[in-house]
Design goal:
Length: 295
């Protein structure tokens, strides 16, 4: 219903406005919700969209015969090895830093899927990979595959392993996108790596990078979001100190997904993206907001 309504009513005259966010901005959330409910009724006359509840808690967290949650929704950790409901099977979640998969790596992932998960791979919204239906007797063998032991892809053993890299999301950035204002993926991977080397962080922190305000990297729903934007630094030019334009980021904090979603708010604007300037700011945020400590 959402896709069809957006297809028929979303802006097509301006590429910058051809996004669902602007349709909701024009209609208001209540108007948009009602339009989707009406569209649902039109598509499925025997089912009333108006009966849909605003949030969808996990089935086991709802009181019998009601839509009332009995416990708050907690975001599940899907990386690592997890037992499935089906006896003797597990799924294995693989971290792919910033979602970047090169051609030879894609082939290797496909071969691993053929070998362990009946050719099935699932891609997550956080740009990671899941191999489902892995026989428990084959899990150890899968973990020893060369691709997962070269220092790039990794399989966390706990939710404290790689606390920043595991939730890293990034858009394509200026390397391959003409709209992006900054380079994102390489920078995102390197920044998270450096911060993990220098800080002790006892909880996963979701960091999203997006190269421009179109927010393909969904910076506003992350714990920490970085959006490409203008910045200035002082440089000496011809014997004079001048402010020059450089690649920068606007930083958002407090985004949340799940039962009580919340769009993060701007914490700081115009931070130069060079590590010299960005790492100290990120360290301060991680220490103040997420209890990080220097190693």
């Amino acid at each position: 219903a959402v896709l069809l309504y957006f297809r028929d009513n979303g802006s097509r005259g301006d590429r910058q406005k051809a996004r669902l966010i602007w349709l909701i901005e024009d209609m208001g959330m209540e108007g948009f919700r009602q339009a989707i409910s009406d569209k649902y009724d039109e598509m499925f006359p025997k089912k009333k969209g108006g009966a849909a509840i605003p949030a969808q808690p996990e089935p086991w967290a709802v009181a019998a015969g009601t839509n009332t949650p009995t416990q708050p929704h907690k975001k599940r950790d899907i990386l690592g090895v997890h037992s499935q409901k089906q006896e003797g099977l597990s799924w294995v979640g693989i971290n792919v830093p910033a979602g970047r998969i090169l051609p030879d790596e894609a082939m290797a992932l496909a071969d691993i899927a053929d070998k362990y998960s009946q050719g099935e791979i699932r891609l997550t919204v956080e740009q990671n990979v899941i191999f489902p239906n892995v026989n428990n007797t084959k899990v150890s063998e899968l973990l020893q595959e060369p691709l997962f032991n070269i220092g790039y892809y990794f399989i966390p053993k706990s939710d404290k392993d790689f606390p920043l890299s595991r939730g890293l999301v990034s858009c394509t950035g200026s390397q391959f996108c003409g709209v992006a204002l900054i380079e994102t993926k390489n920078r995102a991977i390197e920044l998270s790596k450096r911060l993990e080397e220098e800080l002790k962080v006892d909880m996963p922190v979701r960091i999203h990078w997006t190269g421009c305000p179109n927010s393909c990297g969904q910076a506003q729903v992350a714990d920490i979001g970085l959006m490409g934007g203008p910045a200035r630094v002082e440089k000496e030019i011809d014997g004079k100190v001048k402010k020059v334009a450089v690649e920068g980021v606007n930083i958002f904090l407090g985004g949340k997904v799940g039962e009580d979603p919340f769009l993060g708010e701007v914490y700081k604007k115009g931070v130069p993206a060079d590590y010299k300037y960005l790492i100290p700011v990120m360290k301060d945020i991680l220490k103040e907001k997420f209890g990080a400590m220097e190693k």
